[in-house]
Structures
1.
Amino acid sequence: MNNHYDLIILGGGVAGMTAAIYAARANLSVLILDENACGGLVNWTQVVENMPSYKSIGGMELVERIQEQVESLGVDVEEAACIDAMDLTGEIKTVEADDEVYTAKAVIVATGRKPIPLDAAGECEQVHFCAICDGAAYIGKRVLVVGGGNSGFDEAVALLDQGIAELMLVEKMDRFFAAQSAQDQLAARSNATMRHSTEVVSVNYGDTLRSVTLRNLETGGEESREFDGIFVFMGQKPGTDDFKEHLAMDEHGYIVTDENMATNLPGVFAAGDVRPKKYRQITTAMADGTIAALEAERFIRGNSK
Ligand SMILES: Cc1cc2nc3c(=O)[nH]c(=O)nc-3n(C[C@H](O)[C@H](O)[C@H](O)COP(=O)(O)OP(=O)(O)OC[C@H]3O[C@@H](n4cnc5c(N)ncnc54)[C@H](O)[C@@H]3O)c2cc1C
């Protein structure tokens, strides 16, 4: 297997896949490494209604179409790839994943964002971050949703639509942050309860999830409630842990770039939600991927000025 490429793209969300399309069309040899399945957050989106050319399209269907285009251009894709080490400083960049060593003349980091975990829950099969991916396992069962922002409320409604028997949504702060329309939608469901000022103190397991201890932060009172599953929507953090020693980041851990997506290291670019930005959307991630790929091509061809 030839593991040398012109360009390695770390992260195969819409930013990474768009970059791959531009780079492959410029005749660069391209590898995408993704620690999960390509598509990233769009896989978690039930319906996308702001993607020009599709009035409405399922997130997974959109991903399939982009992936088909990527693969038709001869891009190599390694999914479920675990990055063990990297050296991005030299003229030739090295990335080690799953006992393979990959090299390239340029790298684009497009690792997006990850959900903030619920520390009290640890790692458990019954803790989830995506209603459409994992909700079906809880049809007819009881579910706790943690997080009172838009995602929490939208995903709670999506869970109930799938046939969850009983749902409780809790938020630690003293009010919910979701749009009032989203709150009204959930409040109208007879099998849903919503509590703010409520914290998850501990998650109690036997062989499987047994119960959750909740604390009312106004009264200090605690109670134990039985649930079959927990869905956590406490926001997102950048997926940049692997790059902390290598790339300049802002105080929140987002990779700093200039307007051409260039990082502090020559030949290393960043694109999509992993950058500091005001608007994180599919189209803005694609725009970043486009620019990063075109700049990587210029860099590789020795033409960056
Ligand atoms: C619930 C939800 C609904 C949304 N709905 C919409 C919508 O309707 N319309 C819209 O325009 N936007 C929507 N967005 C925003 C949009 O999905 C994102 O802005 C966009 O998908 C970001 O793309 P990305 O490629 O930058 O990152 P991501 O989609 O996060 O992709 C990053 C990829 O990198 C991989 N990765 C992470 N770390 C590593 C690593 N260390 N090594 C290798 N691979 C790694 C991940 O597995 C993932 O595949 C939504 C977001 C959410 C959370």
2.
Amino acid sequence: MSTGTGAPFVLVNMAMTADGKIATANRAVTTFGSASDQEHLHALRATCDAIVCGARTVEETDATLGNGPDRYRRARLRRGLSGSPLRVVVSGTGSISPSAAIWGDRASPVVVLTGAQVDPAKLARLRALADHVWSSPGDEVDFAAAFGWLRSRFGVGRLVCEGGGGLNEALFRAGVVDEVHLTLCPFVFGGRSAPTIAEGIGFPRLADAARFSLVSSKRRGDEMFLVYRAARTAARPGLTS
Ligand SMILES: NC(=O)c1ccc[n+]([C@@H]2O[C@H](COP(=O)([O-])OP(=O)(O)OC[C@H]3O[C@@H](n4cnc5c(N)ncnc54)[C@H](OP(=O)(O)O)[C@@H]3O)[C@@H](O)[C@H]2O)c1
């Protein structure tokens, strides 16, 4: 884990179709990247102290947010990281299901980030399920404060957020994203209600939009692996390969 004191370096890693969707409209298809994309996901996780996911993604994809094949755990240890990343679930209202798969996997601690107005019964339930619960000052999770807490409490210097669109939009709006990894996959899902990379309320004006520079693009088979860096991040140490 990092010994620094600044804000963690924040990555967003997502796979999307050629029409910008991250799942089908009926949400039946949630994983559609190739084996190369899975390798990319696990390789990125293996550089990070923590993985962050929204409540709906954790529930709908049965995510346990682990290392994948053992070579990635070994890569972590060679880098001086813990054997498994800290797992962080964002659930502002504490609605995350108690039967989500993540609760049955104790490979590493699970942290839940909530808002201030969580129903006391839900909060008690979360405290029983999770290893740590952090409550944000407002209704929405304040990500600058939450990630600062992850840094000071667990030494998280680098974290990867893996969606979904609701969480991503809040992160972009909070201005905490340093790097975006997008795998562009050769499908079109269509569907007005199919989720996209960033949902939520969005930015009303071009001048307000989150802005990035393309720093890397690689083709593997029919997929493009794109890396964007936030302008404000130019001076921060990334690990783009
Ligand atoms: N293709 C890909 O790479 C990829 C990756 C991930 C997910 N997905 C897909 O994306 C879909 C899920 O996306 P989604 O947007 O519906 O859900 P999501 O972002 O995974 O989770 C949304 C939930 O996270 C919590 N949350 C998010 N932002 C918050 C904030 N600022 N403050 C407090 N709580 C916050 C809320 O939980 P509470 O309701 O508890 O308040 C909210 O309901 C699924 O279909 C999944 O398969 C695709």
